[in-house]
């Protein structure tokens, strides 16, 4: 009997015995790169705008060490830098990544060089991002990562994130690999740092918190990661879900100023992110309230219809990409900033618009799900204002306790369409 015939009979016998393997084993599922932390880039403003940038005019022969607490972990990481708003090339003389210690220090043994296309000294063209090569570094979920950038040439910080809620350390010379940065000054902003990515297991997904200062964490305690997306990340870390904070303090749905309007940045901050399956939208209070204040003295008032039209565009674009989109109601703000130069932020007409918008978010049926942050945070005895226990003191932004309450009120199952 021929050899081929014997092989065929043997294969049949093994199959009948239940001991054979398929002729072509399925290829193992591939891992993918997913952002575990982000900070939405903003264009530096100058001139007569009411708020300062908190930026130096330029960096020169200095190292900037920035810390970020990630959401999900991994054993290989990448970093994305951004020169999105620069009008000249951005030179990075050296870049390093490490596990963060305290007060500008890093943890021994964790320091790694970041290279970009094999190079450590790079130039990023105007308007461009640059993604680092993969680096082997075990970063646990919810760990703090230090990114150190050496800027050898005069470097204006044209691309930044205004409200970091995290201290960055700046020191003279190339200290990118220093265990402890010799700090000359500190910053409360982020510069050139767009995102941190990890090599994630198959099935890993991401939720984006897309909002304004209440998502960005204004008035949260600095350096303790107490913003509501931070707390949500803690709740989801065990589910292999990244939480990306795409909040920008001062952000608006329909107009620019402290960052691009929501319709303009939705592609960059949400739709273009790998693995995003859900987005939470909490934005609109600045569209309503800036009119008639030093922030926007010459702008017309924004009505509910215009805001709702903006939300509908976000919903349509999310659904076109198969992304679930949740609407969060706008929180109370009576008395907001009343003892500041921004007096006039709230009035009866603006409150009427907020109520109209919230009624549509709750009852319009166009978002995939609703998170009623208004109901969670309002004073039952005076629904137009914040519950005093949650008020940071400016009658607009939460304190740490309110941020935690917001995150803990989110139904985690509502974030996903797993039916």
From TrEMBL:
Alphabetized GO MF terms: hydrolase activity, acting on ester bonds
Keyword Kinase assigned: no
InterPro entries listed in its UniProt record: GDSL_Rv0518-like, SGNH_hydro, SGNH_hydro_sf
Keyword Hydrolase: yes
Signal peptide (residue range): 1-25
SGNH hydrolase-type esterase domain mapped to chain residues: 209-405
Key words of the record: Hydrolase, Signal
Protein name: SGNH/GDSL hydrolase family protein
Species this chain originates from: Marilutibacter alkalisoli
